[in-house]
Amino acid sequence: MVSTASKKEAFGVYVHWPFCLSKCPYCDFNSHVRHAAIDEDRFARALAREIETTATRVPGREVTSIFLGGGTPSLMQPATVAAVLDAIGRHWHVAADAEVTLEANPTSVEATRFAGYRSAGVNRVSLGVQALDDASLKTLGRLHSAREALDAVAIARRTFERYSFDLIYARPDQTAEAWRSELKLAIAEAAEHLSLYQLTIEEGTPFFGLHAAGKLRTPDESLARDLYDVTQEVCDHHGLNAYEISNHARSGAECRHNLLYWRGHEYAGIGPGAHGRLDIDGIRHATATEKRPEAWLMRVESSGHGVVVDDVLNSEERADEFLLMGLRLAEGIDPRRYQALAGRPLDPRRIALLREQGAIAVDSQGRLRVTQAGFPVLDAVVADLAA
Fold it and tell me: What are phi and psi of 158, to 5 degrees?
């Protein structure tokens, strides 16, 4: 069953905290290391200001989910988190059952703040565990040990109504059997939700240079597929179904905020480098803010917001985005919604061909979804349908 909040006309608020203690070598997110102390009060005031300005553009919304991402939001003091959540509550109505997630590193120092985050209003935490063996954690540039991660998970379990953690697979030198054992341990600790991402080598990261130079060897295509298949098999066996290509949950424990993205609903992007999708006078706007934290701060203090991109999406762009995001979900999409957005239906000949190839299926209600066999080639399926 899908939660009550996700059945409403969902509206989310994403807040980006861009600072990290160190930059992981695989990460291409908007994250920054600062060796001087961060002026949290100043950033909290700027976040509140941008929330206020955004709310004047899209007033009267009911917030069904809030996500504090990064960077490393668990480097914030609980008082900073409380100030941000209070600002959201001042300018929009927050639903009584709103999901409020904070991303956290599983270090002992940050875990000591969990009770403070809970008091501030956070009711779900997502832990960036990434691996459950120390050698892999070192390779990935993580600052915690496997033991420390499991201890932080235990604290999260005692503190929050809901919690999740991330793991990365297809790591250097990883075998299918080692991943199977690690995943079983993770499921024993995770309870209801796991995000399981295949390692990708992103341009501009240290891993990209090492990989190009032959100094970092990742699993070949065949082994990567075996690791993906192990992921699906083990999670399915333990009742954590893949509701999205990289996210597994027990029924009812899906991340509501991420479902909001994948289902094409509205969300405000607050903070340095945050993206948003806002409906203004019936027109969908794609927004993005200044990525550099200090430059964003100055923009907000002078203009009330840090938005540097505010593009109007035409019907074709909205439909393509709906297709791209919606087909990541196991529930798939309603082709009628695509037609309403695009002004044209999906090509029935392409649908027929992809069904014949076993890449997609159409259920009795007419919903179109990607099959288990189709997910590993999802990009190609989407490109074919969108053509």
Answer: -80, -25
Please give the full DSSP string across 225-257, using - where no structure is assigned. Answer: HHHHHHHHHHHHHTT-EEEETTEEE-TT-S-HH
**Mean pLDDT value across the chain:** 93
Residue 200 lies in domain: 4-261
Count the alpha carbons within 13 Å of 260 in the hemisphere toward its beta carbon: 28
Tell me the β-bridge partners of 17.
Answer: 70
Q: Around 121, how many Cα atoms within 13 Å sit in the side-chain half-sphere?
A: 22
Distance CA 91, CA 54 (A): 9
Q: Are residues 337 and 249 in the same domain?
A: no
Q: Which of residues 261, 279, 303 is at a domain's end?
A: 261
The DSSP-derived string for 282-318 is: TEEEEEEE-SSHHHHHHHHHHHS--EEEEEEP-HHHH
Do 247 and 324 fall within a single domain? no
How confident is the model over 47-93, as pLDDT tens digits?
Answer: 999 999 999 999 999 999 999 999 999 999 999 999 999 999 999 99
Of 322, 333, 280, 378, the closest CA to residue 55 belongs to: 280
Alpha carbon separation from 320 to 279, 308, 342, 383 (Å, rounded):
17, 23, 8, 9
Query: Above 50 in pLDDT, residue 2?
Result: no
Comparing 5 with 221, which gets the higher pLDDT?
221
- What CATH number should be reported for the domain holding residue 220? 3.20.20.70
Structure pTM?
0.94
Residue pair 360/367 in contact (Cβ under 8 Å)? The answer is no
Helix, strand, coil tally for the chain in percent (to 5) = 45, 25, 35
CATH number at residue 384: 1.10.10.920
Asked whether residue 208 carries a pLDDT value surpassing 90, the answer given is no
Share of the chain above pLDDT 90, in %: 83
Question: What are the CA-CA distances from residue 349 to residues 32, 185, 345, 357 (Å)?
Answer: 47, 45, 11, 12
Among 48, 32, 145, 126, smallest CA distance to 88 is for: 48
With tokens 């094409």, the residue in question is 264
How does residue 28 score in pLDDT terms, banded at 50, 70 and 90?
confident
pLDDT for 186: 95
Indicate the pairing of strand 32-33 with strand 19-20.
Answer: parallel
H/E element, 207? helix 206-212
